[in-house]
Amino acid sequence: MTGWTTRADVTRKLRRRWDSGELLAAYATGQPLLPIEVSLRRPGPRDIATDLAAVREWANPWRVGNGLRVEYQAVGGRIVGSNELPRRVWIDEWPQLWALLGVGGAVRQFLDLLDHTRAAAPALTDWMLGKPHDVLTLADDWVKIVDTVRWIDAHAASGIYLRQVDVPGVDTKFIERHRTVLSRLLDRQLAEHRIDTDCPPADFIGRYRFRRKPRYVRYRWLDPLRATAGFTELNVRVDELAVAPPEATTIVIVENETTYLALPPVPDAIAIFGGGYALTRLDALSWLADRRVRYWGDIDTHGFAILDRLRQRFPHAESLLMDRDTLLSHEGQWVREDSPTVTVLDHLRPAELDLYRDLVDDTFGHAVRLEQERVRYSVVESTVRDQ
Question: How does pLDDT run across 50-63, given as a tens digit for each residue?
Fold first, then answer.
């Protein structure tokens, strides 16, 4: 019986079509998909001649239709005689198909969800019909998902925080958990101007114009005679600092927190705690273009990459203690950089670029790094005060 089609084979073939979503979508939209035909691999005359018992054993189960209409055809001839054997089977009615696959409950559930969505948010039904099994996977949460889409459509145009979405049973964790499907549905529900297509669906907040968490800049006065409203150090929102800059002529950007706190006094200057590549938040501070900007990072490949990034926005920025002499005079303090970068940097000064290339090429040793907190404080003090 090897190779002859069994009822289990037919069921598996139909199951693949069910799993594709084709059958459920056709039923829900009234497509004339039925009847469905499945051809059978069956015994031939030689099989009948050599093992008639096996042929009968294969053929007998097909005599009980159990939801299948079986089409027979004569097989044989002069040697073995004519034998009526199943040739193909047909499924003529949807209930027969659902019973054969054992999916009647899932079909009813999908239709209920489709009816609910068609009444509440008809723009979403095409996606449901294209992904019916995704809908069934989300069945327990589907109504809340649709309600969330409708609420965002009705209330979120003014740029609110995601936390302000007010749907019963829905919180920010629910939205994050269902972010992928919500993105696909919102792309269909919202007007074009409500979607920032420059942001990918993974950037849910940006794509659907929710308000982002504010970014902050931490800075302190290096001039002991100056303060802002009585405070020598502040952590302020970037958007607010952009329109209310401190009245300092010199800005020193430092990466290491302890070094930032320990910088010596400098007249009419402030220090900004950089935060590595996060210093891109400083791009909004357009007033930096009119100030003396000094950047001090680690002497390693990433330190120069950050300096290069800063210069893309503020070309006049100068480096501080990121030179060959500082590196070579602190050889005993060198450590190893974990994951050096080899990015091409186009905004370094010639001496900086030469040093960067030497670091990339391991001229001084493998992945050499001088962290700024390892530079002798006397060197820091004399250099910073000269600024």
Answer: 788 888 888 887 88
Name the H helices within the chain.
Answer: 7-19, 22-29, 45-50, 52-59, 94-101, 104-120, 125-130, 132-137, 139-155, 172-177, 179-189, 204-207, 238-243, 257-262, 301-313, 324-328, 350-360, 377-385
Cα–Cα distance between 384 and 375 in angstroms, integer?
12
The contacts of residue 108 (CB under 8 Å, 6+ apart) are: none
Contact 238, 215 (CB under 8 A): yes
**What is the per-residue pLDDT across 129-177, written as a single tens digit (0 to 9) for each?**
999 999 999 999 999 999 999 999 999 877 899 999 999 999 999 999 9
b/e per residue 56-88 (b: at least 16 CB within 10 A): eebbeebeeeebbebeeeebbeeebeebebbeb
pLDDT digits (tens, 9 = 90+) for 74-106: 877 666 667 778 888 898 899 999 999 999 999
Answer yes or no: are the C-beta atoms of 208 and 156 closer than 8 Å.
yes
Q: Model pTM?
A: 0.72
* CA gap 44, 85 in Å, rounded: 9
Beta-strand pair 292-296/269-273? unpaired
Give the angle subtended at the CA of 283 by the CAs of 280 and 287, to the nearest 5°: 145
| Burial annotation 288-318 (CB, 10 A radius, 16+ → b, else e) | beebbbbbbbbbbbbbbbbbbbbbebbeebe
Cα separation of 225 and 247, whole Å? 13
d(CA 299, CA 255): 11
Q: Are 263 and 222 in contact (CB under 8 A)?
A: yes
Collect all residues with Cβ–Cβ distance below 8 Å to 372 and sequence separation of at least 6: 254, 255, 256, 259, 296, 297, 298, 299, 321
Output the CA torsion sign for 354, 355, 361, 364: positive
- For 55, residues 6+ apart whose C-beta sits below 8 A from its C-beta are 43, 47, 48, 83, 85
* Distance set, CA 223 to CA 238, 242, 253, 254 (Å): 22, 21, 15, 16
Phi, then psi, of 166 in degrees rounded to 5 = -120, 80
